[in-house]
Design brief:
- It is built from 20 helices and no strands.
- It has one domain: Growth Hormone, Chain: A.
- It is mainly α.
- α4 runs antiparallel to α17, α5 runs antiparallel to α7 and α14 packs antiparallel against α15.
- Helix content is 73%, strand content 0%.
């Protein structure tokens, strides 16, 4: 399995690695503030812990809507253009944040930087274009697992660059600016070296990209219902800003009104896209069931949402529970994130290799339920070695479930993979914000119990709602009559040649990857 990842003469492998690097860079940039927080406070004299806590909230503010918007854009324009544009565009607020001289500049730039968290969605569609259904799980898991490692890499390297390599009051500024420069440069590199699809393959696009297509009137009502929390979580963030008295009451009211208008706008777009389609009638072979999307929304809420929440509280939990120093507690807690490097690809691999993607998902969600339930009993009398082992085991299930989630998404409805990935990915952030808000009201042990309950609810949703995708282990994605009709009139949106394609064009056909 692993040796196939080093077959760089195979064009698919090259695209996978170039896309993983792009995602890795987005996470390095997205999480470039937290490791430098103390240095920023000491060097500026006007930043405080409270201000940086607010920046932490702002840092995820636009990620949810950005993932939904990016999902629609990449279905329309292709991942090559969208990923490149996202990297180049996000370098601008990164530079502004690096050299900002007051709280307003840093807050506004951080708000726009939160959009870079949408980069994950782009690679999901790109990878699905290059790998068939029977291999897409492992490929997506490798992409996501190693890309997510960017946050840990930022924590390990940026303080060293700021303090040891550069030093002085400009250390943190130049470290942050370096991540922006890498974004800018790699955005152009990515555009130059990848294609949206293999040679001769047409990029399937939805009939409308303004909103997700559905197949029945009932599914449209479900889509509307599942859209509301995506806006509602932004209201939760506004509420948190209000509690910290960061904005005046007038601004808070204005933001709530704006969010109401945003939901109304989304509702109108959903109706504009789907009412004509449903009135005309959706051919039987072009239908899909939205309940599959809804179930995967719950899984990513319960696994990725839990991961982001746990990573933020675990160091302090171990420090206070076992009366240890912050360095040791941080090292132990980091095991939860480091497992991502192999646990998420493993989840995708098992989803590919076993005969039922649904059953793999059910096992993983059951493991998350049991793992967090067991962690809720960790206390000072609980053996430390056993607590560490339980943390790692739970993390294996959490991140394996993330891999299993996105192993299913490309098989639901191929031409709207971007929009489905955008919604499901956004629900991971919804889960993180929801869980972190709950954490402020409960003890850590109660919090683990709540995470277990969330996973149990998702387990029930998956059991009742998920249907095994058709041809989910096939050599090619299933095409409907509408897909074929559209592809007859759509151009292949890729350059005639690229540095990647010219070197390995034949290998795509002659040397298929085994991943076994």
């Amino acid at each position: 399995m692993l040796k196939d990842l080093f077959r760089f003469r195979d064009e698919r492998v090259k695209v996978l690695h170039f896309t993983t690097i792009a995602f890795f860079i987005t996470f390095v940039t997205w999480f470039n503030m937290a490791p430098l927080a103390t240095t920023m406070i000491e060097s500026t004299g006007w930043l405080t812990k409270e201000t940086l806590a607010i920046f932490g909230i702002i840092n995820v503010a636009l990620t949810v809507p950005a993932r939904v918007v990016i999902g629609s854009l990449l279905d329309r324009f292709g991942p090559r253009i969208v990923f490149s544009a996202l990297l180049v565009t996000m370098s601008i607020p990164t530079f502004v944040f690096a050299f900002g001289n007051d709280v307003a500049q840093l807050a506004i730039s951080r708000l726009f930087m939160s959009c870079i968290g949408a980069g994950f969605v782009v690679g999901i569609r790109m990878v699905s274009e290059w790998f068939p259904p029977k291999q897409v799980g492992f490929a997506e898991g490798f992409y996501a697992g190693w890309g997510n490692f960017g946050s840990a890499f930022a924590a390990m390297t940026l303080p060293w660059i700021a303090l040891s390599l550069i030093g002085g009051d400009m250390g943190w500024r130049l470290s942050v600016a370096l991540t922006g420069l890498i974004c800018l440069v790699y955005g152009f590199i990515y555009y130059a070296v990848v294609k949206d699809t293999p040679e001769g393959k047409v990029y399937a696009r939805p009939r409308k990209s303004a909103a997700m297509e559905v197949s029945t009137w009932g599914d449209m009502l479900q889509l509307i219902a599942w859209t509301f929390p995506l806006v509602g979580v932004l209201g939760l963030l506004v509420w948190k800003l209000d509690n910290k008295s960061f904005l005046s009451g007038t601004w808070i009211t204005a933001l709530y009104v704006l969010l109401g208008l945003v939901f109304l706008y989304q509702l109108i777009r959903i109706l504009q896209v789907n009412v004509p389609i449903l009135k005309k009638g959706v051919p039987e072979d072009d239908r899909y069931k939205f309940k599959n999307v809804a179930a995967l929304n719950t899984t990513y809420f319960a696994n990725f949402g839990a991961e982001l929440a746990v990573v933020s509280m675990l160091p302090m939990f171990f420090q206070q529970t076992y009366a240890m120093g912050p360095e040791k507690a941080g090292l132990i807690a980091s095991s939860f994130a480091f497992v991502n490097l192999f646990a998420r690809p493993l989840g995708g691999f098992l989803s590919d290799r076993l005969n039922s993607r649904k059953n793999v998902m059910l096992v993983y969600m059951l493991g998350i339920t049991a793992g967090f339930f067991a962690m809720s009993f960790i206390g000072s009398a609980f053996p430390l070695v056993l607590a560490i082992g339980l943390t790692i085991l739970t993390s294996m299930f959490v991140q394996g479930a993330e891999g299993a989630t996105f192993a299913m998404i490309p098989n639901i409805k191929k031409r709207i993979t971007g929009q489905i990935a955008g919604m499901t990915g956004a629900y991971g952030n919804v889960g993180a914000v929801t869980y972190l808000t709950i954490l402020t009201f409960v003890s850590p042990n109660q919090f683990f119990m709540i995470l277990s309950a969330g996973a149990l609810i998702s387990l029930l949703c998956c059991w009742l709602m998920i249907e095994e995708p058709k041809n989910s282990f096939a050599d090619e994605y299933e095409m409907s009559s509408v897909d074929r009709e559209m592809m007859e009139t759509e151009p292949v949106i890729q350059p005639a040649a690229s540095p990647v394609s010219t070197s390995a064009k034949a290998s795509v056909v002659q040397a298929p990857l085994k991943f076994k």
